[in-house]
């Protein structure tokens, strides 16, 4: 492969890879020479994304909150590609409600996918990276984890928790050549955000100095940076992708 590619022959696992941000990241990684593994609860959607990528790709049905599923994801990846070089913990859901109305089931489900899932995937993937003496982990947090959003106690707490996980992972695995960083996207144009009412959308836009929403590929490019040798001396960092919102 041409030497100018950023991830030639590297294997990248993206959890929640069939969604808007996940698909954008998969497309960007594939364009840089990576073998991409799409891990998602929706196998048909994961296979659809994998089938559209320019390079070698694999879809694996994964319940990210299930330790056995996560172990199978990692073993399948290594057996199929021979390595696991980058893990992107992207899987996530929302179950919005005010604290007063939020059920324990809504709270637990969001924590299970975001935090338990990221912990399980990190734990399993980092063992492979530890043996390789190299690897990069990128956690997809959110500006909601920085400031807290009304009606998102579960989501904001989980996204904030991912920052703590990122920093602990960075400290524990640095000596093995494994880096861990995080990004905090703000208002990004996806199917979920485009479903917002015009009033809420305009209210959010008014808070952004750049005056527009971000695009999924703008997140993907930053994640690519943190996954490649371009960021070889960065670990434990948190990069905001929010157009200047909440400075």
TrEMBL record:
Recorded superkingdom: Bacteria
Annotated coiled-coil segments of the chain: none
Domain Ketoreductase: 10-191
Pfam family, one: adh_short_C2
Family indicated by similarity: Belongs to the short-chain dehydrogenases/reductases (SDR) family.
PANTHER family: 3-OXOACYL-[ACYL-CARRIER-PROTEIN] REDUCTASE, CHLOROPLASTIC, SHORT-CHAIN DEHYDROGENASES/REDUCTASES FAMILY MEMBER
Protein's name according to its UniProt entry: 3-oxoacyl-[acyl-carrier-protein] reductase
Protein's gene: fabG_1
């Amino acid at each position: 492969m041409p030497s100018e590619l950023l991830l030639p022959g590297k294997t990248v696992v993206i959890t929640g890879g069939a969604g808007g941000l996940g698909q954008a990241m998969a497309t960007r990684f594939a364009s840089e020479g990576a073998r991409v593994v799409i891990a998602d609860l929706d196998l048909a959607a994961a296979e659809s994304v994998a089938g559209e990528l320019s390079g070698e790709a694999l879809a694996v049905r994964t319940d990210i909150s299930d330790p056995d599923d996560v172990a199978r994801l990692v073993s399948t990846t290594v057996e199929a590609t021979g390595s696991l070089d980058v893990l992107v913990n992207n899987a996530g859901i929302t179950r919005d409600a005010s604290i007063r109305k939020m059920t324990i089931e809504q709270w637990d489900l969001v924590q299970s996918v975001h935090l338990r899932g990221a912990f399980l995937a990190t734990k399993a993937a980092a063992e492979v990276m530890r043996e390789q003496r190299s690897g990069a982990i990128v956690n997809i947090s959110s500006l909601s984890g920085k400031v807290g959003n009304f009606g998102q106690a579960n989501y904001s707490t989980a996204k904030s928790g991912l920052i703590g996980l990122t920093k602990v992972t960075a400290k524990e695995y640095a000596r093995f050549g494994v880096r861990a960083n995080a990004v905090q996207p703000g208002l990004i144009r996806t199917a979920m955000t485009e479903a917002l009412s015009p009033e809420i959308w305009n209210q959010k836009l008014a808070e952004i100095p750049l005056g527009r929403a971000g695009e999924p590929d703008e997140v993907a490019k930053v994640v690519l940076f943190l996954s490649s040798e371009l960021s070889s001396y960065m670990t434990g960092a948190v990069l905001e992708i929010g157009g200047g919102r909440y400075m």
